[in-house]
Design goal:
Elements: H1 2-6, H2 35-38, E1 42-48, E2 54-61, E3 70-75, E4 78-81
Antiparallel strand pairs: 1-2, 2-3, 3-4
């Protein structure tokens, strides 16, 4: 309701459960109640990559075509796609 009335985007941040979750589905990686994973229209996760300061980005998009995972790297002050 807040986003509709104000035109603002709302971002929520959550953490993964302990242990290696890379084999789990994107929605199942979040720690605790699965409501956090089922409510958003769009989800993006960043999972550590084997290369230092690099992360795999994965998305689940309710209203758009899902994009394939891709790798980004932190190169101060930017995160760049590699």
């Amino acid at each position: 309701m807040v986003a509709v009335q104000t035109g603002a985007a709302i971002a929520l941040f959550h953490h993964f459960a302990k242990g290696n979750a890379t084999g789990s589905a994107l929605q199942d990686r979040l720690s605790g109640n699965s409501v956090f994973a089922r409510d958003p229209d769009s989800m993006i996760t960043m999972t550590r990559h084997k290369e230092a300061d690099a992360y795999v980005l994965e998305s689940t998009l309710r209203n758009l075509k899902n994009q394939p995972p891709f790798v980004v790297k932190w190169e101060f002050p930017l995160i760049r796609k590699i």
